Amino acid sequence: xxxxxxxxxxxxxxxxxxxxxxxxxxxxxxxxxxxxxxxxxxxxxxxxxxxxxxxxxxxxxxxxxxxxxxxxxxxxxxxxxxxxxxxxxxxxxxxxxxxxxxxxxxxxxxxxxxxxxxxxxxxxxxxxxxxxxxxxxxxxxxxxxxxxxxxxxxxxxxxxxxxxxxxxxxxxxxxxxxxxxxxxxxxxxxxxxxxxxxxxxxxxxxxxxxxxxxxxxxxxxxxxxxxxxxxxxxxxxxxxxx
Length: 242
Known about the structure:
Rossmann fold; two-stranded antiparallel ribbon; 8 helices
């Protein structure tokens, strides 16, 4: 798919700003376009259904965990600022790299810290957000911990996206478990079963023991969970309000 072929404005911007969220491979060296990092995840064409309703929302707040690799830092930050192109749009970026501070400007706040640390996550959760996107370490424990602590800071009708849950599968499992007994996909499947059945019993739920299951007990505040290739999109109650 070429830049011109994408019918999604969000995806076209993702290609322009060289993000791996787009439908096209990233270019590592803009001077040498043959040097690419395959493949693009093709998230943005799906995200647009969930995000375009916020284009006119006053005082829209987006939190992104992860600023991108050092060689391509800030690509998605530039994407979000171009897509939500309003004076009252506010972006908050969290990354463990000190180099992320270069992204700070009038509309963008950068916090440097370790997302594996509960006190740091609680500090982040003191603000409210319309959308949170976790594109940070991809370690299972980090994905689950951030979700547990940050989901309550999502406004009614807001969206929480966890990217790169393919680290829960196949040959990636050994690298990305980092001591966690529960992978992110299993935790989200458990949550989806709670949402779909409104807390009723189901064999999927019975397979999880108390020791194995993260405390994802806030299913009552969730209106929908959508799995796409490599990511999961969770919408809070109010998203489908008339």
